[in-house]
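Can't paste images in this forum, so I'm doing it all in text. The chain is below; anyone willing to post the predicted structure tokens underneath?
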Amino acid sequence: MADVVQSVTMVLAGAAAVLLGHRALRHWWAERAGRAYELPVDRTGTAVRAGAAGAAALLAAALAVPLFGGGGDEVGTGAAAPALVAVPPPPARTPEPAPPPPEVRTLGHPAGGTLDQLQEGTRVWLPPQYASPKAAGIGFPVVVAHLPADGEADLYSGFVLAAKRGLADPFVLVQPTDCAHGSATALAQAARRYRVLAARTATGLIGAGADAPCAVREALATTGRYGAAAGISGLYPPLAPSPLPRPSLLLALATDDTAARAAALRLRDALHPHGDEVRVIDGIAARRELFAQIAGYLTEKLDGPAKTVTPPPASVSPGSPTSPTAPLLSPSRPLPPSLPASRTPTALPRAAYPSHTASQSRKSSQSS
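Text version of the structure:
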């Protein structure tokens, strides 16, 4: 209602200003026309009319400012103008989460092979022959290795050296983060990602130094996982007798390691009465040569590389657990059920693998 009254008053004031202005102009023209006849000039009427027109115009302008300037409510109601509401700044942008680390990260190419690290921390060394296009359908025997970091270079170069001499097969080496509980998990991870033979007869185990007792204990206590094992310069505690079959065992010693030699002989003497096969070698000073000898021993005891085929994934009902399938031996070229102890390294494509310059006659199981 106040806005209506104010608007009407503004219109009336504007009309009065126009009317009074018009009359002041007419009065001025009349005064000017009378000057030609020398009539007396009286400008009072013009001034009064002009002043009234100006006052009316000022009133109309004063009334128009609140109406058209957004202040009509405040004038009509007498309410105070609301305070300006500060616009809050936009919320800070939440940074996008970092992408997950890759499942497989290549660390380098020691000894001409490829060293990968899996997301769980397990490291896998692939021999140089693994990456050859002609080895695309070849599955490799796998060896779990527990040893100090300063012995890794000799491990890789020793296995490569034995393969170049034609005395050993190429192996995939799996290095778990934990000797006590990590071997089974590491083998499963390697089987999911690499072309490895999952059979017990193609799986070996190595432990060196402080990890040798743990590795040997695992090999002798685990049934059905390893076909052969090797301990290097370890101090082995007595083991409880077991009626279960145990894998072939090699105990290797560095030169002048009296304590390790005594421990190896005690373990050999404890296992021989139960029919376990234990071999002891010593007198090899160079670590690389020692690992080359171990590669030859594992070649003697384990299956060599073979053609593999990965079966198509079976249909699984929703919600049922699934597990990756390890490579199976190709039915067209099956491995023999048992390999003689005197076998030589498996013959592989010449372009993909180093040629065998010499054949090694495998010795029968013996102990020194």
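The longest helix spans residues 2-34. Helices lie at 2-34, 44-68, 72-77, 152-164, 183-193, 212-221, 258-271, 287-301.
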